[in-house]
Design goal:
mainly alpha, elongated
Length: 205
């Protein structure tokens, strides 16, 4: 019986080697030989799946971005609530929670950011402002404002963009050890409170 080869698993293993090498020494130091050594495979194995270093780096970047989106989606699902405010806080906090996988992806993104300065392809992959995510978040902000007795301001999309920019920045601080996760979460909640405005019951007291 022929051996069943999991090609997706092999690609994932090579991508994870890129992530690990980039976090330790920067993306510019990553080579096909180092990836092979890190993954414990031959150069021929790497070249079978990726024709060039550029193709491997691109896939590593794409997968990192998708992994971060998956982290956010999982946070929304596990929130186990129909409250738009609870969902909003859960998905934003996904970037500042002390989860090792999230921290590794954040550190890799930082390593890739240096390459983005001179590489338009990398810059496009890392560009902020995912349209679907911003639309989803803007909807949560508008719904929460209504739940609190207020009205949508008409600038929910801008507010959503700012929220994600702050969450990403705080996630970077946590990943680099500049800020404790609890402190980052407290700051993020403070900003969310400012964005959402006072609840009707509080506003009338």
């Amino acid at each position: 019986m022929p051996k069943i080869v999991d090609h997706e698993e092999r690609r994932r293993r090579l991508v994870e080697a890129v992530w690990a090498l980039a976090v330790r020494g920067g993306l510019e130091q990553v080579t096909l030989r180092k990836v092979a050594d890190e993954a414990g495979v031959s150069m021929g194995h790497v070249q079978h799946y990726y024709s060039s270093m550029q193709a491997l780096i691109r896939d590593a970047l794409d997968r990192a971005v998708r992994a971060v989106h998956t982290t956010i989606e999982n946070a929304v699902r596990t929130a186990d609530t129909t409250s738009p405010e609870a969902v909003l806080r859960a998905c934003l906090h996904a970037l500042v929670r002390p989860d090792e996988e999230s921290m590794r992806l954040m550190r890799f993104s930082l390593a890739a950011a240096g390459r983005a300065v001179s590489d338009p392809t990398t810059a496009n992959v890392l560009a902020p402002g995912d349209e679907e995510l911003l639309t989803f978040t803007a909807g949560l902000i508008a719904a929460t404002r209504q739940d609190r007795g207020g009205r949508p301001h008409g600038a929910e999309r801008t507010d959503a963009d700012i929220c994600w920019s702050l969450a990403t920045s705080l996630g970077v601080d946590v990943a680099l050890g500049y800020r404790a996760p609890d402190a980052a979460g407290h700051m993020l909640d403070h900003h969310i409170d400012q964005v959402l405005g006072a609840e009707q019951s509080k506003a009338t007291t």
